[in-house]
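Give me structure tokens for this 213-residue protein.
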Amino acid sequence: MSWLCKIVDIFYPRFCYHCGRMGEFLCDQGYNELNFLTAPIKLTLPTVYLDQAQALLAYEPLVAKMIHQYKYNGVRDLSATFAFWLYQFLPLPEVDALTYIPLHRKRLQERGYNQARLIASALAQKLALPCLPALKRTIYRDKQALSKNAAERLTKSAHIFAPQNAAIWSKKYPRILIIDDVLTTGATLNEAARILKENGFAKVYGVALAHSD
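Here you go.
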């Protein structure tokens, strides 16, 4: 451990989200309570553009707590933990590059970082693959997490992305993996896949950290 990491640990210690003890984000008991998913997720959407959708964990209270802290309370260090779990425990498809669900620039200014991009970048580093900013978000809308209705989610996800050098990158990296934090209906990942396939990507896969029914 570097001296900088030691200083960070002193002033910003890690606490377990299960038992509250200082040291790690999750103790062994908490880890054993995680519900890892193995089978691909079948999307029930009018048209499915994703070649496969996967999620690592069931969106249960402990996972929801960790994601909430990571996403809204600035616990960015969790991105390395989440990326390690994806790398270690999820059978990822063979791809040439990774990308991520982008935030609108207004949301990015509010939050200060894109939680999906941090995970994607850390995972790409482990896989020795490029992480491409292949999409941009063009429409700012209310937080999708507040929408529980599947039809409403589908409507809100329509036409919210635009390509960003995607047509160029698709020639070099025809198979791409999109990373997001939570998958519910899969509408957001699927819309991203639609844009990428329209811009030349042959295979588009989606992976989320957690799946919420």
